[in-house]
Design brief:
By secondary structure, the chain is an all-alpha fold. The protein is built from 19 helices and two strands.
Length: 491
């Protein structure tokens, strides 16, 4: 039997540029059929069953056989078990957070010394040397530059540590196990199990957490993950939590317990954020984002050694520097606004002083003060400059002359001096507690808001994601303040 076998066939067009006909394709198929032989189908099915038997032999232990040791299965029996899965997960991420917080202290101090303590005075001297007007040098150096310097010194080191560690866990194969452990809780709250991954990323940076929601295929459940990601305590809010807990919560107990109690207070606030994520996810999934919980197949990849250098490079370039650049672009105008509010006067008082007096009555209802609310308004571009802004505005209100560097100039003090300044500004334990709560439950920073808009392409959902947390923050702090005053009798 003879068969026509074309020498060369292009499935799109032949040598003279005309389309290949159906007849030519059929001829090619017939030729290939005879080339592979008549028993190809039998050989294919035999190979499939052979491979299936080999896989079954590795997975099944028959009666009388010694159980086979498999490292991946042994690890999974521990890290995904009902008894040990959650404690190990909490311990591992506590270690990651501890390394991030402690490890970032030294580079943050070094950057602050370089950018704030050293370079800032040099820039002021240079501005005076070239004869810049005081208002221009103040706006550029004391406002825009100093705010950006604070953001870089506080934000860069934690991100440069947290993101590579997080990526190493992902590369090792552990993060899919986290999603597996938390899937049932998120499913009961009407959310997607993979929201666990974006929430964990949000602890480093909420903007990066919003980007991480791309792993969720369902548009409805991805929106839930985006809206609730703000409740993950990002690295920009850790300094506020740690400082306030150390000054006001730790001081309530003996010195040898102060560190432990302060740490427990901060962890408690972070866990409250996780609880709020479940609660708000449950509410959204039964109201404006009502729908069926999607099912998904979660592959548990084999454990493998992390590619350390590739991971570090990728996390620094794709996550750290991109997020930092966005934060810097928003910190520049924020610094200008902060300086202008402190130096523009109406009558005999600065614009900041007028705004603080205007906000004070409403802030009192929340257990806060006008300084804190104004600081959160002008520091929307970056959470990292909240504490320096509060310090600056408190000096402005109290008229303290022994601290600070001038009107509208952000600065940092040691712990005891900070507490003395806060107490002079009328702070109480209620103020500190509600500041910690409001730091957790308030509007996202401008970098995150911009990222939400870029990811959703919707002004509506960007507005909801921005306003829902701040409304909740007002409600929670108002409730705590009223109960606190009712119990204490101190109105």
């Amino acid at each position: 039997m003879s068969t026509y076998i074309p020498e060369e066939v292009d499935i799109k067009q032949n040598s003279n540029g005309t389309a290949v006909t159906e007849t030519t394709l059929l001829q090619t198929a017939e030729a290939l059929r005879w080339q592979i032989g008549r028993n190809f189908h039998d050989q294919l099915m035999e190979d499939i069953y052979t491979n299936a038997a080999r896989i079954a032999d590795r997975a099944i232990t028959r009666a009388g056989e010694q159980p086979r040791f498999d490292l991946d299965s042994t690890i999974d029996r521990i890290v995904t078990s009902r008894r040990w899965g959650f404690p190990l997960m909490a311990l591992l991420f506590a270690v990651v957070f501890w390394i991030t917080i402690v490890g970032s202290n030294y580079p943050s101090q070094a950057l602050a010394w370089l950018l704030v303590d050293t370079l800032h005075p040099l820039l002021r001297s240079g501005a005076d040397l070239i004869g810049l007007p005081w208002w221009l040098s103040g706006l550029l150096v004391d406002g825009m530059y100093l705010a950006t310097a604070w953001v870089v010194s506080v934000m860069l080191p934690p991100m440069a540590i947290f993101f590579p560690l997080f990526t190493l866990l992902e590369d090792f194969g552990y993060l899919p196990r986290v999603a597996f452990n938390l899937d049932n809780l998120f499913r009961k709250s009407g959310a997607h199990g993979k929201q666990a991954l974006s929430m964990m990323m949000g602890f480093g940076c909420n903007a990066a957490g919003v980007v991480a929601t791309r792993v969720i295929d369902s548009p409805r459940e991805r929106l839930i993950a985006i809206v609730t990601n703000n409740f993950a305590l990002c690295n920009g809010r850790w300094p506020t939590q740690i400082l306030i807990a150390t000054l006001f919560i730790g001081s309530l107990v003996p010195a040898y317990l102060a560190g432990l109690v302060s740490a427990l207070a901060v962890v408690g606030v972070a866990m409250l954020g996780v609880l709020l994520s479940f609660v708000v996810s449950w509410g959204l999934s039964r109201t404006i984002l009502k729908g069926e919980v999607s099912t998904f197949s979660l592959e548990l990849p084999p454990y493998r050694p992390p590619r350390i250098w590739q991971t570090i490079y990728t996390s620094l370039i794709d996550r750290t520097l991109i997020v930092l650049w966005r934060a810097v672009t928003f910190a520049l105008p924020a610094g200008a606004v902060i300086w202008l509010t402190a130096n523009i006067t109406l009558g005999d008082r600065s614009l900041a002083a007028h705004l603080i007096n205007l906000l004070d009555p409403f802030a009192w209802l929340l257990g806060l003060n006008g300084v804190i609310l104004l600081a959160y308004v002008v520091a929307i571009p970056a959470n990292e400059i909240v504490i320096p802004t509060i310090l600056m505005l408190t000096v402005l209100v109290t008229g303290a002359t022994d601290v600070g560097s001038g009107a509208g100039v952000m600065f940092e003090l040691e712990g005891a001096a900070v507490k003395d300044l806060f107490l002079a500004g009328g702070w109480t334990l209620l103020t500190a507690v509600n500041l910690m709560l409001f730091s957790l439950i308030h509007n996202p920073c401008s970098t995150t808001i911009y990222t939400i808009y870029k990811e959703t392409g919707s002004k509506k959902w960007t507005l909801i994601a921005a306003l829902l947390p701040v409304v909740m923050g007002f409600m929670v702090t108002f409730l705590v303040a009223q109960v606190w005053r009712l119990v204490s009798g101190n109105w």
